[in-house]
Amino acid sequence: MATHRNLPTFPVVDEEPPLKKVYTNLTFKDYAYWTVFTLVGMPYGYATGKGARLQSMYFGGLLGFTAGAFYVYQNSLARFKGFRDNTSLQKKYGSTPPPQPLDLTTPLSPVVEILTEEEKKS
Hints:
The longest helix has 29 residues, at 53-81. This protein is an all-alpha fold. Helices cover 61% and strands 0% of the residues. The radius of gyration is 23 Å and the shape is elongated. It has helices at 19-24, 28-48, 53-81, 87-93, 110-121.
């Protein structure tokens, strides 16, 4: 499981959603980003491909399509994990409260205390 520097600010909908679930819950804005990435990649490939402009245009479109897919996956996953606003997902799937930070001031459990006492003896 990956670790995060910050705790989620919104309720967590699904801690580890499968790939299909992430891509089936894209918003209109996600599709717009994906389209823009693809459409920007095509003229960029055409402009930079000196000897083979048409092939470079298709390759630039493919790179833009791939970059857009990764970008919208990241955004959708962040909504599931509570790092972005996810009110629509909460209505659809329900939610769990965001995790609380660890409380390091509580005393150790009895098992840990016994283990630390044994280490002190040896």
